[in-house]
Amino acid sequence: MNRLVLLAGLIAIAGCSGTGTPTPLPTLEAATATQAPLTPTPVPPTPTPVEIPVQVTAELANCRFGPNTVYLSLNEIKQGRTLNAVGRNETSTWLQVDDPINPGGTCWVSSEVTEAAGDISLLAVAPAPFVTITKADLRVEPNRISVACTDFPQTVFFEAAITANGPTLFTWQWEASTGAISDVGTLIFEEAGTQVINEFYQINSPNDYWVKLKILTPNEMVEQVTFPVSCNP
Q1: How many whole angstroms separate alpha carbon 96 and alpha carbon 124?
Q2: 34 within 8 A of 63, measured Cβ to Cβ
Q3: For residue 111, how many other CB atoms are within 10 A of its CB?
Q4: Residues 6+ apart with CB under 8 A from 81
Q5: Residue 225: exposure state from Cβ atoms within 10 A (0-12, 13-18, ≥19)
């Protein structure tokens, strides 16, 4: 009985592994990605700067470094002169114009002393210029010392005339060849002009000395003065 069961099982297995034609597997085809054509982003056209002729109506109009009377006057424009306005301040009370005296430069005139041949509100708003220290005249007193060797220490004084072309915060520092460095000084220019600062140092021996004035703000600048110190035994 057991043989019959085993034989039947072998016949069943043989039937499952017959020589019939196997069912072919489906063929996989690679998917082809379709990319949409790129559409270039349109570049907006650059607006053409607006320029408006303006005529000076005052007898003399100051053309200034910036849009206010606190700025340095660069030149004077006579009545009847036509200027090319290229900008304005936010309130349209001042106009930025091509400087007729300095080609390539600009200056500012009050709209109250001009008559425009167009709508000045169409002009671009121009920022106020960056104010700078334009000049620093440094001198030492006395500029030469010759004393008896027993007469030390000697005191020397330094003075600098500082010129700014507009309102600004001015800071500076003195430095001497002796190694002395001053604290940072601060001075406010409420308008364009010249102000004087000073300092002094004590000299304890003969030598060739120098003192530097370092302008820190609104722009950096260095001025230096030298002075010889000698003594007689």
Answers
A1: 10
A2: no
A3: 19
A4: 55, 56, 100
A5: middle
Confidence of residue 228 (pLDDT cuts 50, 70, 90): very high
pTM: 0.76
For residue range 8-17, list pLDDT tens digits in order: 443 344 444 4
Domains (range + CATH), the chain: 52-122 (2.30.30.40), 133-232 (2.60.40.10)
